[in-house]
Structures are given as C-alpha cells and as structure tokens.
Amino acid sequence: MNQQMPKNLLGLDLQELAAMVVAAGEPAYRAQQIFHALYSERVPSLDQATSLSKEFRAALGAAGVSVGMPSIQKRFLSSDGTVRYLIELSDSETVETVWMPEGDEGETGDGSEAGEELAREGFERPPRGWRRTTICVSSQVGCAVNCQFCLTALLGVKRNLTAGEIVGQVIAVLRDQNVSPPNDRVNLVFMGMGEPFLNFENFIKAVRLLVAGVGITESRMTVSTAGIVPRIYDLAAEPVRPKLAISLNAPNDDLRTQIMPLNKKWDLEKLIAAAREFPLRNRERLTFEYVLLREINDSESHGRELAELIHGLKAKVNLIALNPGPGIEFKTPEELRVLEFQKTLTNAGVPAYIRRPRGRDIYAACGQLKRTVEVAS
Ligand code: SAH
C-alpha cells in the first residue's frame, strides 16, 4: 500500500473510500463494505469490521489506517435523564455532546419539536422508557461568535471539527446508549459548541454521512446559526439539509448588536431577508430562538416588536430563559415573565414554545457547554 492512505476512515464518503480501496489494489466493492461497517454497523475498530477480509484489515492496519472513533472521556448524568458527554478528539482537544431522552410526555407526533414543548407550568417528569431522543452535536472546539450571554463564547475558538469528528460524536453516543437508527428514533440538533456555519463544508459533509450512512433522516435534523447570512443561502441550495433555526435573541439592531456583536456585520435586515428567501419544504417551518434576558429583551414591547419583525414568515419561536453561568452578567427572567412573553407572541399570531432547560444541573443546557469538568452543585 502506498503512503497516501488516510489516517482515519470516519468522515470519508463513498467516493473517498473507493479511491482508497483502488489505491490499495482491492476490488471496488470493498468501499461499500467499509462504508457499511463505519456508518451502519458503527464498528469502533477495524478488527471488528468482519465483513472485510482478514488480509485487507491487516493491510490497512499496517498502513496506519484506523477508524478514528472519538473517545468518551467523561459522562455527566442529570436528574432529568440528560447526559453530557465530554468527547476527546485525536489531538486531545475536547468537545461536548448532549443526549436528551424524551418520555411519552410532550409527544407531538411528527418528531419535529425535539427538545421543546408547550409550557407545562414547571411540571416535569423524568422520562422512564424514552420514545425518542435528541442528540445535541458540536461543530467546533469553542466558538468565535462572542454572544454575550453564552458560556462557550468565553473559550474563543480553537479549531473546526472535521466531518469525521462531527459524525464520530454521534456514533460514539449512539454506541454508548446502545441505540441504533434507523430502527430507533433519533433527532439531531447542531446546537452544541461552535457555530456550524463557520465550519460549513465539514458540517454539511457530516450531514450527508449521517443521512446516507447512519440512517438518520434530514427531517429529524436541525441546524442553528447565530446568523452567518451567506451560509443561510448556501444551506438553502443544498439538496440534503437539516431544518434551519436562527438565534435571533433581539427584535431590533441596537439591542442585537449589544448582545450579539456579529449583528454589526449581518444586521437584521440582511438576516430576515435571508430567512424570507429560504425555501421551505412541505410541512417545514423556520425556528427562531430567543434567549430571554431579564429586563434586557423580555418586555411586552420587545415581544410585539419581535412579532412584527417576523410577520408573515412560516416560523415558530423557541423561547429559552437564560441558563446562567459563571462570567455571564445577565439574569434569568421569572417564570411568569417568560409565560407573558409567550402570550404576547401567540396573541400576535406567532407560535411560541418555551424550551425546557435540559441538564442545567450538569451544565448541559443551551449556552452552558464549556467543557466544565466540575458539576454545578
Ligand atoms: N452557534 C449556533 C449554535 C449554538 S445553539 C447558534 O448560535 O445558534 C445554542 C443556542 O443556545 C442558541 O440559540 C443560543 O442563542 C442559545 N444560548 C446561548 N447561550 C445561552 C444561555 N446562556 N442560555 C440560554 N440559551 C443560550
């Protein structure tokens, strides 16, 4: 075998595997076998890829080729069933991936309302036998966007994840939980650490592998962006793509620039224009996320302004009461304020849901992913 062999197989698509197989002097059908072993069987190492001949496995091993599965360094278990995984990559960097099982409660029938439900007055049951689950996936080590209310921002960005590392997180967690799509129902949200649209190529390649290889359909995936406008147009042009969520967080430019400095570059006019042009599929709608910050963006007039801003869009709003964290100056609004804000939106004809925080006790909730090794007490 020549020296152009890849180091890691995870992240390679069928074409790339075919090129490798041919370079190794093996029959082309081997590529399909490797693809199946990696993404459907999800083998952790080549010796377990028993559909390949022993000789071929040995030759790959001798050439320094391995699966490249990220390893689980730590698990943090929340009282609500959520598990935060600290995942270690090959260069010892770490990212977080969150497993959020859902019980029968809050079932909406179409699987599109992952991780959210109508407010149920603080009433929460730990899921017993879960019926579906959502995995929250990271796209970068850290984040460069600098949203003022987010803990991940405090890390800055270290590097982009490769497509293999993005897919690898999902596979590592599926294996750990002994869950196997397409038979088991799994939703993915690209809402973990990082800004997926600042790592667009690797993110979208991972999506293709997750659909074609792992067997999770694109309609069960949602990607969230802080508002990298050109990539919204790029996503729109992708034949295979997740649903789109946009982190709005403020109803006017002054406020948005204050809490999300990237708004200077891509302001609300540009952002909402991109949202209006985004081609929705059958039964699809956009999601706008709105983090409620006490006495900053949570008044009734903010609610009305928000409804006006997105008027006419086929969209819903997910309200997230700030998840607090060390180094974050903002405060969480009271439950009643959150319910009132929701009411302002629904009265204006905008469907609004309150996203129940998952795994706050283990720092796994939105905006809390910071590779914290300690657990909140
Ligand atoms: N970078 C992408 C993906 C991360 S998604 C994005 O910004 O959309 C994380 C979601 O959690 C975003 O909607 C963000 O606005 C929200 N968020 C960030 N910090 C938060 C916090 N402290 N409390 C609640 N939600 C937060």
Architecture overview:
The strands form two sheets. A ten-stranded mixed beta sheet has the order 1-2-3-4-7-8-9-10-11-12, with helices on one face. The model is unreliable at 105-126 (pLDDT under 50). Helix 1 (14-23) crosses helix 2 (29-40), helix 4 (163-177) packs across helix 5 and helix 6 (229-236) runs parallel beside helix 8. The chain has helices at residues 14-23, 29-40, 54-62, 163-177, 200-214, 229-236, 253-259, 268-277, 300-309, 335-347; strands at residues 71-77, 83-88, 94-102, 132-136, 140-142, 157-160, 186-190, 221-225, 243-247, 286-292, 315-321, 352-354. It contains ten helices and twelve strands. The chain is 29% helix and 18% strand. The chain folds into two domains: 14-62, DNA polymerase, domain 1 (Orthogonal Bundle); 71-362, Aldolase class I (TIM Barrel, Alpha-Beta Barrel), CATH 3.20.20.70. Residues 145, 147, 149-150, 191, 195, 224-226, 247, 249, 289, 291, 320, 322-323, 366-367 line the site of S-adenosyl-L-homocysteine. S-adenosyl-L-homocysteine binds next to strand 8 and strand 10.
In short:
This protein has 377 residues and is α/β, with parallel strands linked by helices.
Task: Detail the topology: elements first, then pairings.
Blueprint lengths: L13 H10 L5 H12 L13 H9 L8 E7 L5 E6 L5 E9 L29 E5 L3 E3 L14 E4 L2 H15 L8 E5 L9 H15 L6 E5 L3 H8 L6 E5 L5 H7 L8 H10 L8 E7 L7 H10 L5 E7 L13 H13 L4 E3 L23
The structure holds S-adenosyl-L-homocysteine.
